[in-house]
Amino acid sequence: MKVVLLAKTLGSSLTFALILLGLATRASAEPVDVGLVVEGAGGRIENVAAIVQRQSDERVWSSNLERAHQRFSPASTSKIPHTLIALERGYAKPTTSFSWDGVPRSVRAWNKDHSLRTAFKDSVVWVYQELARTAGRIALAEALEDFGYGNRNVGSINQLTTYWLDDTLQISAVEQVEFLSRLAEEKLDLSAATNEAAKGMMVSENRDNWVLRSKTGWWHSETAMDIGWFVGWLECAGETYVFALNMDMPDTRFLLMRKTIVYAVLEHIDAFNCD
Fold it and tell me: What is each CA distance from 34 to 41, 65, 261, in whole angstroms?
């Protein structure tokens, strides 16, 4: 009955059918392959998964879609959900101070006092380990389940401070985009204050006409290939492009390539054109 009434309102059943066809076509549109763009930016298609989704129409651009569905350790990109948990549950604010214990660590930037904001920016593992101990395994597992974050696996109690580093927690590039899309559109079950604070902390580049919110990640292994991540979203003239990239990283020369590839794809699809 509703279909008939709507068809009459539109003027003809043919018009209505065309609209339905258009909606179906949009919903089932295949991702646009940007493998050549990835190669042009220095990446090898077989070693890189890149995916970008435009929020207004859910248009997707991707390279190596098979790999984009494969799960890897999120490494420091897990600091996004962990920061949300800390803010929402009141474990910390962006300005909360964490005192360095004086133990030298491999990354020089970690060897000093930090706020939550600077710990997020510098990927300070010991701060997030302290937050994990404060939250406890049950609260962390519940939150990741609520977020639908990857395999939601926090491991055993003995892995409380390592599960996002030791390959227990895993997530795919596609799942990163799904999670970040809900965060960008404030569709996660979070307070307005948490959304505002988290989005502010995630700003990595801010121009006159666009803002990039992002996080890098680097999963290191002594026995397997290292994995690099770059995830986040671009806000430009009311449009939002959510992205996730993971790639093999044989050595540190590939660190910069994470961002280079994503920027190349965003430029290719004209995402920075906000005029």
Answer: 11, 10, 10
3-state secondary structure of 239: strand
Angle 218-219-223 (CA atoms, 0-180°, nearest 5)?
A: 140
Out of 62, 63, 73, 76, the active site residue is: 76
47 CB contacts (<8 Å, ≥6 apart)? 247, 248
CA distance 69 to 269: 22
Separation of alpha carbons 216 and 74, rounded Å = 9
Predicted TM-score (pTM) of the model is 0.88
CB 73 within 8 A of CB 178: no
Active-site annotation holds for 221: no
Structure confidence by residue, pLDDT tens digits, 94-123: 999 999 999 999 999 999 999 999 999 999
C-alpha pair distances (Å), 124 with each of 109, 273, 274:
8, 34, 34
Residue 152 tokens, joined: 């939601």
The confidence score (pLDDT) of residue 237 equals: 87
